[in-house]
Amino acid sequence: MTLDTSSSTLTLPSSVITGQTEKTSLVDADKFLISDSAASGALKYVQNSNLGGGGLVLLSQVDADQGAASSVEFNQVFSSDYKHYRLLGCMNIGSASAHEIKFVWRNSSNTDQTAGQYFGSFAGSRRIVTGSADVTGGDYGNANLDLAQDVYGGNYARKVTLDMTLFPDAYSSVTYTACQWQIGFYKYNSGTEAPTFLNGYGSYAQTTDLSGGGFKIYLNANSWDFVNLALYGVKTT
Amino acid sequence: MKKYVATLNSETQYVDFTAQDQAEYDARQVEANSVSGRLERVRRMRDELLKETDFYALQDVTMSNEMKTYRQNLRNLPQDFNTSEKLDELFAADENGNLTHSVWSKP
For chain B, which terminus, N or C, has the lower number of CB atoms within 10 Å? Predict the structure, then answer.
């Protein structure tokens, strides 16, 4: 560090920055040093929460191939920092049979929300050698949500792809939640596998406090082989 | 059985099921392999196979007797294969996973 008193210039070594401990996950209260153009260049700070622009913030991820796992839990991931959440990724199921991929919300105590109030619908198309056909399904007053049915596993070629948006919108301490998703997979179809794509919507018509909560994705039977899912928080400002 | 657990900004944990997790998993396995669970899958498969051949019922298309029999057999699946032994027969598959029971063969 040098100080040139004749020019009133303080020169700092670059290690002032590079010598510090790196932080890899910014939070709203983190601060940046700025020169305020509206105040003759006075040094001030800006909080990360005021940087603006919105966008996706990586909150959590499961990137694992450690062995058979029947469920994937994202626990205590919701907060008031984000308006919505986006789950992106892919998975593989270990067994060459038909499976249902299911979803439940979880509260801040990691308790599954399983009141018979899941209402959902999905529709899409599958392809077999003779042509395409509609695929439909859903839930009406069930204890969980089916994201897809008759999902075939047992081969790395039969990858399940998922793009899901979660809306655990909070109003006071009471939450009505919804989600929508796109999912691709190989469908078990009389033994003949059929590439399939679905769009779906699901609502949980139950008032419950999901602040500080999360969700779980699981199979009705057997287990996941590998899982690569990333959860992002959506900031609108 | 194990599960993957993720929390905010943390490494994935690969942990044992809790006793409650295991109980729920076991119950789901039982349901998936039960007669009612497998019949639900049969109904879904049947509905899709019927939809595939619905166009044969249009007025300007002639439906063969073989197709009529095939579709009727599909409609009868839940009542004709309503025991564990019969469902085993229905879901018998070759080494490639293709179902071998004649009821699945479209004429």
Answer: C
